[in-house]
Design goal:
It contains 20 helices and 4 strands. It is mostly helical. It starts with a helix and ends in a 16-residue tail after the last helix. The relative contact order is 0.20.
């Protein structure tokens, strides 16, 4: 077969190690170094802080092992989009793709790239929010934007060069990030532990309370359960990104086996690392503290400066160099995280275009066998979100919506079991039906809690997603109702 014949086909270059690196790299960003402060303010208990991370980690792994069955039955490019389209209908698939492009993927890349720029500024002070290059009133362009946007453009360019280049960067940065967290955990347990902090935390291990302007309010009964539910949002999104590997099924060798295994290995690795990272926090600093504290110990985990709990804990290891070392960690972490998201997102737009549900040009592969146009469109929208400064709010809005799409996908495991009971399944959801059911019930509980206690996080997100309904029908009309559905080959019965 000639090069001309193969240039428009995906190239199956992703092996198990590469796939696992994409899972790990897409999950580990800056969240684990920040969100525990917010969780501490909401719960005020060392024990419940760890419970939140433990449950969030378990739910993430439960979701990942359940997705494995979908990946083995529908090993097509586009992953979650193709699952939802096949299980339900093209509209549901489109709504996921719409939210992914508009907010979830591009918004996440924008947020992570801005974090990259801000932490790079700790190392190179020229990169600063206050170093404004020009101000148009509605847009302020600072040197942080230079770093953020440059990183997105560079990663987009690298990934247009081919899947091999993209996966090499992912492997390098994923291994680096795992090594960084292992170092942090090892050094924290053996060198940064503070006997006073451990003693204080142990004395109040299960005493839950919520920080308010008037002081701490004790939590009991339903209030405690509600606080756990709302606090899990930060942990779940720090653990998010594991599903990105499903988007690359068209470039994965033996995807029916490789993707399920990578989901298990990657999500379990990150869940364990994140849990013990929080153990280090509790060994280095007291959970409670005062916002007026003069040092990191007095401020505690609850009131760490700018929520940089990772940096505060690192001071026990590196002293005055803590901020610099942690900034380096986060720069590495965010750069690698964004590469995984940049690489994978365009595969969804490619699959949508094949169904006439996105710009046709995104359904074409370049000479390197990658959806370059999809990468470019994603890059342009991400840059606009960086400049607008709205990405943070948009991500807050779609918290419940992202969970809803996960639930719909995992409900699909039950639907496909019923629809194709005799189909071959190279991988079956571990613990079926118990583990998928636990995930569905637990996630629905969290969504209900968010609807009640954080409506500003939920209703706007639903509006964003539902705005895709008229867009779908307009797109359908423009295409003269030629919405197609790429044929899925369900494995033959035994």
């Amino acid at each position: 077969m000639t090069e001309k014949q193969t240039e428009h086909k995906f190239r199956r270059k992703i092996k198990l190690m590469d796939a696992t690196a994409i899972v790990i790299g897409s999950m580990i960003g800056s969240g684990v170094f920040i969100v525990s402060s917010d969780i501490a303010r909401g719960l005020g208990s060392p024990g419940w802080l760890l419970i939140v991370w433990l449950i969030s980690g378990l739910l993430t792994v439960f979701a990942a092992v359940s997705y494995g069955e979908l990946a083995s039955m529908i090993p097509n490019a586009g992953g979650q989009y193709t699952y939802l389209r096949e299980i339900y209908n093209p509209l549901i698939g489109f709504l996921f793709g719409w939210a992914l492009f508009l907010v979830i993927q591009a918004g996440s890349i924008a947020a992570v790239s801005m974090a990259f720029g801000k932490f790079l500024g700790v190392i190179v002070p020229w990169f600063s929010d206050t170093n404004v290059l020009f101000d148009l009133g509605f847009v302020k362009f600072s040197t942080v934007h230079v770093a953020a946007i440059s990183s997105v453009i560079f990663l987009t360019w690298i990934n247009t060069r081919g899947i091999v280049e993209g996966k090499l960067i992912q492997n390098l940065f994923s291994v680096s990030k795992v090594g960084i967290l292992l170092f942090f955990i090892f050094a924290g347990i053996f060198f940064a532990r503070n006997i006073d902090a451990i003693h204080i935390n142990w004395q109040h291990f299960w005493e839950a309370s919520k920080a308010t302007e008037g002081g701490a309010v004790a939590l009991h009964g339903w209030q405690l359960f509600a606080a756990v539910g709302t606090s899990m949002v930060g942990a779940l999104f720090a653990l998010d990104g594991w599903n990105n590997i499903t988007f690359t099924a068209g470039e994965t060798r033996n995807p029916k086996r490789t993707i399920p295994l990578s989901l298990i290995y990657g999500s379990l690795t990150v869940a364990i690392l994140y849990f013990f990272t929080n153990v280090v926090y509790l060994m280095a600093l007291p959970l409670d503290g005062s916002p007026d504290g003069l040092n990191v110990f007095e401020r505690g985990i609850r009131f760490a400066t700018d929520d940089r709990i990772g940096t505060a804990s690192m001071e026990g290891i590196m002293g005055g160099y803590a901020a610099l070392i942690m900034a380096f960690f986060v720069v590495i972490s965010t750069f690698g995280c964004n590469n995984g998201m940049v690489l994978s997102g365009a595969r969804v737009y490619y699959a949508m275009a094949k169904d006439n549900l996105f710009f046709k040009s995104t359904g074409k592969l370049n000479k390197n066998g990658v959806p370059a146009n999809g990468l470019i469109y994603q890059c342009i929208w991400t840059v606009l979100l960086c400049l607008s400064g709205t990405y943070g709010n948009l991500l807050d809005y779609v918290v419940a919506t992202v969970l809803l799409f996960y639930v719909l996908s995992i409900v699909g495991v039950f639907i496909l079991r019923n629809r194709y009971p005799d189909a071959k399944r190279k991988y079956k959801a571990f613990g079926y039906p118990v583990i998928p059911s636990i995930y569905i019930i637990s996630t629905l509980f969290i969504m209900v809690i968010l609807l009640i206690y954080k409506p500003s996080y939920t209703w706007p997100g639903l509006v964003i997603v539902l705005s895709g309904v008229p867009v779908y029908y307009i797109w359908k009309r423009v295409n003269r109702n030629q919405i197609t559905k790429t044929k899925i080959k369900i494995p033959n019965p035994n």
